Amino acid sequence: MTTHDIHGIAEIRTLVDAFYIKVRKDALLGPVFEARISDWDKHLQIMYRFWNAALFQVREYTGNPFAAHASLPVETEHFRRWIELFFETLDERFEGPVTEDAKRRATIMANTFNRRIHEMRSVTRHQPLNN
Questions:
Q1: 9-125 topology per CATH
Q2: Torsion-angle region of residue 110: left (phi > 0), alpha (psi -120 to 50) or beta?
């Protein structure tokens, strides 16, 4: 397959569609996403806007991505698998500076979400006693 860099919304759609096909089939991630997402078309539309904003500063995305993920039953292994599939999908289709930026942003996001979810759980498990 000939690869080129991500240039805009057409490539973002290709990336997002291919990535979520993998996610839905994945033994670890599939059940988590299937339990949460009832309208896949709506979710994909949001993801197109999210990545278009992240990579090209197109201001069509509104939302709080962390809030949407904070209550998911996920652990570090889920984030590792997510990154693995995301990078695999990128590497199969694209190469170039925007592709590398997508990897960098995805890694930062996954690490941040993982850390914040674990911090939230730690706080809720270890609430100080009030006098």
A1: Globin-like (1.10.490)
A2: alpha
